[in-house]
Amino acid sequence: MRGAAMQYLLGHDVGTSGNKAVLITTDGQVVASDVETYPTHYPKPLHAEQDPEEMWRAVGATTRRILDRTRIQTKDVLAISFSSQMVNAILLDRQAKPLRLAISWLDGRAVEEADMVMRKLGGPKIFALLVGVAITGKDLLPKYLWLKRNEPDLYDKATTILDVSGYILHRATGRLVYERSTASVTGFLNLKKKTWDTTLMRFFGVDKTKFPELVSSCDRVGGLTKEASSVLGLLEGTPVIAGAGDAMAVAVGSGAVLEGDGHLCLGTSGFVGIVTSQRKPGRQGIATIQSADLDKLLLIGETETCGACLKWAARELYQMEPEPPAYAHMDEIVEETEPGSGGLIFAPWMYGERSPVADECVRASFINLGANHSRAQMTRAIYEGVAYNLYWILESIEKEYGLRPDPIRVIGGGARGLPWLRMISDISGRTLETVPHPRETAAVGAALLGAVGMGVYPSIEALKQVVPTGKIVEPAPDPPEIYTKLYKAFKSIYPSLCKVYHTLNEPELKTAH
Length: 513
Prior knowledge:
Layout: E1 8-14, E2 18-25, E3 30-37, E4 49-50, H1 52-70, E5 77-84, E6 90-92, E7 102-103, H2 111-121, H3 124-131, H4 140-150, H5 152-157, E8 160-162, H6 164-173, E9 177-179, H7 180-183, E10 189-190, E11 195-196, H8 198-204, E12 213-215, E13 220-223, H9 226-232, E14 239-245, H10 246-254, E15 262-266, E16 270-276, E17 287-290, E18 297-303, H11 307-318, H12 324-335, E19 345-347, E20 365-367, H13 375-401, E21 408-411, H14 418-428, E22 432-434, H15 441-453, E23 472-473, H16 482-512
Parallel strand pairs: 1-5, 5-14, 9-12, 15-21, 21-22
Antiparallel strand pairs: 1-2, 2-3, 4-7, 6-8, 10-11, 13-14, 15-16, 16-18, 17-18, 19-20, 22-23
C-alpha cells in the first residue's frame, strides 16, 4: 500500500461502565480514543441489568467524537470491530427488539438454578469436564434457566438469545450472529468442534433455535447498514469484523497471542489469561474458553474484586473519590510502608470469588488486625492481598496445566501503578510488561482483530510483533521473605473460614433469589 493514503481501524470495547473506542493505524499505533459511560441498574439484591440501546448509542457517540477530533476521511476507515463484556443475556423478539434489559455478568440471581445444574450433572467437576467452564449463579446457563422459570412469557416470546457482542453486531450489520469466543462462556459451545452443543441444550430444556449462527473473531459479519452508518458517522458498507470477548480481546491487544503467553488484567475485577492449545477441564474455578484465535483456547482465572478493593480503600480509608489522585496518594503511602504490612493480611473477596476459590458466599476480611496496625499498613495489606490472590491463580494454573508464563503482559488501570506492579512481581517471581495504552487494551485488540480480518496481517499470531511494551518490572533479586510466610497463611484463610462465610451469607443469597 505504498503511496496510498493512511488507513485506519476502529475498535470498540463495549464494557460494563461504558464504551471505550480507539482509532489505530494499520501498524497498530493509537491515533485517538474516547469514552462514553452508561449505567448499571440494580432493581433487587443480586440483580444487575443494563440497557443494550444505551450501549449502541455509546458506540455511536464515541465514533463520531473520534471522527470529529481527528478529521480523517471516513473512506480511510478500513473496518470497525468490537470487544465486549461477556456472560450477559439479551432476549430479542421477532423484530429483533430487546424484550427486557440485558442481564449483566454482575448479576447473581440464578443461585438456585446453578445448584440445580450441578445436581443434574453430578457436580461442578463433571460440568467442567463436559464444556470447560465452572458453573456458578452468575454464569449464563443458570441465567437462561432463571429466565425460563421466572419470566416464561418473555422467554417464550423471544426468538433470539444474544449477548452484548451479538446485539452490537446486529445493530451494525442487521445480521443475527453469536461470536465464538463469547459463546464459549455460555456453557453451550463444544470447544473441540467449535459448534453449539445442541445435546446439552436439549438436556437442560433450552431451545436451540433461539441461538443464532456462530462466527469467529476475524470473520467479516457484514457492512454497516444505512441506519448504522448514520448513527456512527461512517460510510454505509464499512466492513464490520466480529471481534471477541473482552478477555480474549485484551490478550490480542496486549500481544499475548502465542502458545503459553500470559496476560494479567488489573481492572475493577481482575484475571489471569494464558493462551494454550490444551483442552483440559476447568479446575479451581479456572475456565477453559475459546480464544480469539480459532486454533487456540484461553485459560482464564478471574478474581471478582481487584481494583475494586483499591476503590473501597480510597472511599472508606481516605474519604477520597476513586480517581487517579487518590490512587497516586495511596501508592506513595504504600511505598513508604514495610513489606508484609506488619503481619496484616487482607483477603480481597468482596463480592464472592471465582478463582482459585469458587464460592459466592465468601467475603473480604482483614486477618490478624491489631491495635498496633496503622491505616498505611491496612492500605498496603489490601494491595498485597490482591497480589497474593493473583499469584494463587498463577500457581494453580502452573500446577494443573504445567504453564508458567514469564514475562506476563499487564493491562488495565492498575498497570499504571508502579508500587503494585513491584509487589505482584516480587510475590509471583515473574517479570511484568505493561503496554502503552493499558486501559484501552481491549479496544486496541478489537481493532487489531479487524486488521487480521481485513488481511492486513496474515494471522493473530503475527500481531505479537505489533504490540510494543511499556514499563518492564522485574522481581527483586532477594524479595522480602515475609511474603512467603504471609502467602502460605493467605491460602489457609478460605478453608479455615469457609463454614463461617456460609453461615453468615448463604441465607442472604437464598433470600435475595
